[in-house]
Amino acid sequence: MGFSFWHWAILFLLIGVPVFFAVRSAIKPSQNPASLVGFGGWLMLLAILQAFSPLRTLVSLGSSSEGYRQLMTLPNGTLAVYGEVALLLAFVVFQVVVLVTMLRRSYRFKQLFLYQWFVIPIVFILDTAWISAVLGIPVSQVLAGNTLIAAIVSFALTGIWVAYIYKSVRVRNTFTKTGASGQVVSAS
């Protein structure tokens, strides 16, 4: 099954249009860079997407429940399902940690978001290898449908956001809090 022209057009619109506007807004400098602080502009869109990312992972987990029931009837199926669920729940916990650091405006958010980007293919590879090894089936059977394409698109889109985070003046001005209380502690 290949991609038709319309699939490519939709993919171009989903990736190309945000990239175009991000590059265009990055080219024109702000009149007052110090005023770019807080959740606004592109950072607001990223905050919304980050807030929904754990929910999206949980919905994906829930929508796989019928497939999990079918897998449990196979030899080692229960082990395969429990391993995949544990891996995805660990990923959800990490996504929530990234979300909390973002909401607290911690300086660690940029680094954790970068790690989250790296974790996307790691989770995908570990999950694929786990299912293949435990069930004793070829990787090509595990990668049925658009599974690989969805993972690549997710990785690419998150990569665009990583580039934004490391280039944005608003992000640099917003994520500055350190310490447990969000303030820099000094001995006076």
Notes on the structure:
The protein is mainly α and 188 residues long. It has one domain (37-174). The chain has eight helices and no strands. Helix 1 (5-27) runs parallel beside helix 7 (147-167), helix 3 packs antiparallel against helix 4 and helix 5 packs antiparallel against helix 7 (147-167). It starts with a helix and ends in a 14-residue tail after the last helix. The model is unreliable at 182-188 (pLDDT under 50).
Topology:
Layout: H1 5-27, H2 41-63, H3 65-72, H4 77-103, H5 109-135, H6 139-142, H7 147-167, H8 169-174
When the domains are counted, the total is 1
What is the mean predicted local confidence, pLDDT? 80
Rg calculated over all Cα atoms? 20 Å
Oligomer: single chain
Low-confidence stretches: 182-188
Number of discrete helical segments: 8
Shape: globular
What structural class results from the helix and strand content?
mainly alpha
Helix percentage range: over 70%
Number of strands: 0
Task: Please provide the ordered H/E string of secondary-structure elements.
Answer: HHHHHHHH
InterPro entries: DUF2569
Keywords: Membrane, Transmembrane, Transmembrane helix
Transmembrane segments: 6-27, 39-59, 79-100, 112-137, 143-166
Protein name: Small-conductance mechanosensitive channel
